[in-house]
Amino acid sequence: xxxxxxxxxxxxRAGRGYxxxxxxxxxxxxxxxxxxxxxxxxxxxxxxxGTGPAALSAPLIALLAVVxxxxxxxxxxxxxxxxxxxxxxxxxxRSLAVHLQRLGPGWLGRQQPGEIAxxxxxxxxxxxxxxxxxxxxxxxxxxxxxxVLATVATADWISxxxxxxxxxxxxxxxxxxxxxxxxxxxxQWRLLARxxxxxxxxxxxxxxxxxxxxxxxxxxxxxxxxxxxxxxTMATLxxxxxxxxxLELAAALATALVAVEVGLRLLAGHLGYETALVVLLLxxxxxxxxxxxxxxxxxxxxGAAAAGRACDIIETVPSPVGRTGGAAPxxxxxxxxxxxxxxxxxxxxxxxxxxxVSLTIRPGDRIAVTGPSGAxxxxxxxxLLRFAEPTGGRITAGGVDLTRxxxxxxxxxxxxxxxxxxxxxxxxxxxxxxxxxxxxxxxIARAARLAGADTxxxxxxxxxxxxxxxxxxxxxxxxxQRIALARAFLRDAxxxxxxxxxxxxxxxxxxxxxxxxxxxxxGRTVLLVAHRPALVAIADRTVELPAAAALEVLAT
Length: 556
Prior knowledge:
Largest sheet: 6 strands, mixed
Number of strands: 10
Structural class: alpha/beta
CATH superfamily of the largest domain: ABC transporter type 1, transmembrane domain
Oligomer: single chain
Radius of gyration: 34 Å
Number of helices: 18
Distance between the termini: 61 Å
Strand content: 5-15%
């Protein structure tokens, strides 16, 4: 892993300013290190000569001022680092969320949601030690040894040569150890992502696991993955502790070597007392930043690895369906949509989801799409929602290829009700207004009334202002479906896509949802995926997709 990933500062601008502040504070700290050693050596030399208090007061006051400035620089660097880390994490998370929207559900469906969630939360939190510890020491590691060598060389060239010869040993040992640490940290990160993803799946599927008696088995799996993560973490920590020992030993031996030769020459009278003190005080300072870099490198690697993964995602090029900015206009109230021999093959699959499907959707049409499971009905809706890109043929609207139309502008003309609508842990009003931000309370209530959702919403503890909780589990399937229909009513889009909105509902609930669907379909172009005859009856015509990869669509 590179000491500094330039992508991090390209995608998080706050890091650039922090680097300049760190460099400036590094220069100040370096100057204070040299000044502190020289003043302390002068103070001790004067005291050894028996100089009076008047001669000691000036260097003592100057030394105290230098120590205060050095402490202030360290404190300022710490504060700046923590603020920069918080801002960088915020910017990265914002960029990650925006780019994930551009990549779209098609790309996300091929990823591990738990891994991405771990990167955005626990992973990026690891940037705190990267900014607060590693980067400042990296700057000092480039400034302090050079300044110490230059200062020592002017005082005693022999000691400067010894320091110059032994100084490279520490970065060499750090690199050798770091090569081992990188592989272990990457394995640790993969296990953490796997653990996060699996735990998320288990929590979401806990009711199903309990029903089928598999909860205990999943507990064993989580325990196995957790043990693997614990072992990987302990292995990484062992390497970190050993690397600290190696670096400390190398620095101690190098410092001792310089101290021995300085002491011998001091006793022989070949070196002055004050010069010897300057050399002895500065020699440990030359090795200290390099040792600190190696030490903090291990603590910061997890955050740096997570930031690297976030940058990989941010730099992933969206497919044409995920991009926006097309110039061609489209009005679905007037334009017809044409699918011309459209095929779709998902990455990693041999069997096509759709094969040479041809269909014309005219404004005002009500079309029911039927067929057995796996025929590609939901995939057809995904193409119209631009969640996927045709691998063959093309889709046009008003004669214009869909790839030339801005994706956001296209989706603003579509209302979509999925088979299992997702409701967020917000209020009932916020969930209804999802596709129409800023809608008034009267408009939200009207949409709920048209969808038949007003009765049970008003019966909630705080009515429309009642938080629904995670996935709105306090509501029944039919109630969640009605809120999804209320979203579509409020959006008032010319094209309505329905993916089996009555699936899994009992007869009485289905009848209520069907009434809402009929009201919603008035004056709109409707394409609905249907299995039940009552839902098919709403349509003017039916399109049947065969189970196998078909060469054409059969319309009745």
